[in-house]
């Protein structure tokens, strides 16, 4: 019988499906029940910390957070790890994004997302649809904090069909940073060797939980390393086929597996 000590779940396409923007009450209650049973829970997402705390409001002070695709790790409300990239590299990535047609740039900080002023549609997408705290600037290179995640948003993205290929960016920057497609039109640039798995390793060390005791849920390319790291990876049925091949189990929703965990079901027999 597999009983995890830590459950880590991606958000978009995993806990949140079909463009749903809120976690339903039933799922939040199941997470709360897991916590009550002594199982830790971590939100593992490309989203920012404050965004995740808002989504998980009923249990926000009880769970852990892998934010910005692994750049920031919080144990509850305590920042336990942060990865940053050299300023020169970050500026080169920003310039490459700005030179790409239909591409918007977003710079992540701990508390806000920095956007260039003047693009109202992108501003409202990040603030109102994604749910991030936003700071507008006239000079995107003049951010007061170190760079950790830089993101490209595809202005012409339609459901499942990006118009901007990430491969040229991988070829240009892949030796110096981690470039990953985050889904829904986003391409993320993180410090080299930074991903959700390295973040879970930091969190696991802090909690004294090894990878063999971690169950992870994911659906997309930015979940790949986490799925490889976790002892029991679960892929979403509607997700990336490559991610499904890494999983021990495929599920339609996270909730259905949380119920089985709480019922002490033997997942190895499914």
Please give a structural write-up.
This protein is of the alpha/beta class and 270 residues long. It has 2 domains: 6-82 and 194-269, Rossmann fold, CATH 3.40.50.1000; 87-191, Hypothetical Protein, Haloacid Dehalogenase-like Hydrolase, Chain: A, domain 2 (2-Layer Sandwich), CATH 3.30.1240. 30% of the residues lie in helices and 25% in strands. The protein is built from 9 helices and 14 strands. The chain has helices spanning 25-36, 49-55, 87-98, 120-130, 167-173, 196-207, 224-229, 241-246, 254-262, and strands at residues 6-9, 40-44, 64-67, 72-75, 78-82, 103-108, 113-116, 134-137, 150-154, 177-183, 186-191, 214-218, 232-236, 249-251. Strands 5-4-3-2-1-12-13-14 form an 8-stranded mixed sheet, sandwiched between helices. Strands 8-7-6-9-11-10 form a 6-stranded mixed sheet, sandwiched between helices. A hairpin with a 4-residue loop joins β6 (103-108) and β7 (113-116). It starts with 5 loop residues before the first strand and ends in an 8-residue tail after the last helix. Mean pLDDT is 91; it is low at 265-270.
Question: How are the secondary structure elements laid out?
Answer:
Elements: E1 6-9, H1 25-36, E2 40-44, H2 49-55, E3 64-67, E4 72-75, E5 78-82, H3 87-98, E6 103-108, E7 113-116, H4 120-130, E8 134-137, E9 150-154, H5 167-173, E10 177-183, E11 186-191, H6 196-207, E12 214-218, H7 224-229, E13 232-236, H8 241-246, E14 249-251, H9 254-262
Parallel strand pairs: 1-2, 1-12, 2-3, 7-8, 12-13, 13-14
Antiparallel strand pairs: 3-4, 4-5, 6-7, 6-9, 9-11, 10-11
Helix pairs in contact: 1-9
